[in-house]
Amino acid sequence: MTVSILQSNYIPWKGYFDIIAKSDIFVIYDEVQYTKNDWRNRNIIKTQNGNQWLTIAVKQEYLGQKIYETKVFKTNWAKKHVSTLRANYAKAPFFKDYKDEIFKVYENASSNLSEVNNAFIKVICSILKINTKIIDSRTLSLKGDRQERLINACKYLGADTYLSGPAAKNYIKPSFFEEHAIKLEWMDYSDYIEYNQLHPPFEHGVTILDLIFNEGPNARHFLKY
Length: 225
Fold this sequence. Notes:
It is built from seven helices and nine strands; from the N terminus they run βαβββββαααβαβαβα. It is an alpha/beta fold. Strands 7-2-1-8-9 form a five-stranded parallel beta sheet. A two-stranded antiparallel sheet has the order 3-4.
C-alpha cells in the first residue's frame, strides 16, 4: 500500500492531484509551520493578460503558527475569487458544467485556511474521479523529527511504500526508509501533455481548475495516474 503526505494547498495544480491519485492513502499534513509566499493560500490562473495570482489574505499571528491554525483575514475573498474566475474562464468549454460545484465550495468557505483547502481538494478529487482515501495527519498523533514522522505515518497506516514529492530530496535519507523496510518512491512531474488552454502560451503550473474548465470530463486524461 502506498501513502503520500503533503501540506494542503489552495486549489492546487495538476501534479498535486497526480500524487493523490497514485496513492492509496493521502495524508494532509498541516501540523507544520505556515509559510508566507507559498502555495498554502494562493495559486495561479490564466488570463488574457498573462498569469495572475489568486490569493487568500490570512492572519499570521506568530512565527511558529501552524497551517491548521491559520485564519482567513478578509471575509469577502471568496466573492472576489468567484468573480475573477468567472471573468477569465466564462469562455472555457466546460466552465458552465463545473462552475456551480466549484462555486458552492466558495459559498460555504470556512474562516480556517486548512479547512478551505481541504474542501477544494476533496471536491476536485470527486470531479476527477480520484477515490484515494484522504485523512488529516492530526488523527495519527505523529511524533519525532520530520523523517521519523513520515516513517511512523507509514507504519501506522500499514504502508509498505512512501511516495514523496521531489522537493523532499533536500532532507529525506533513503537509507532511513530502507532500515524500516519501507520503499521510497519519488513523484515525477515531468512530461505532462498540453491540453486546450485559453490565452497562450501554454502554462503547466496553474491551478487544476484551468484543466477542469477547459477539458471537463477529459481532464483526467491529462494526468498521469
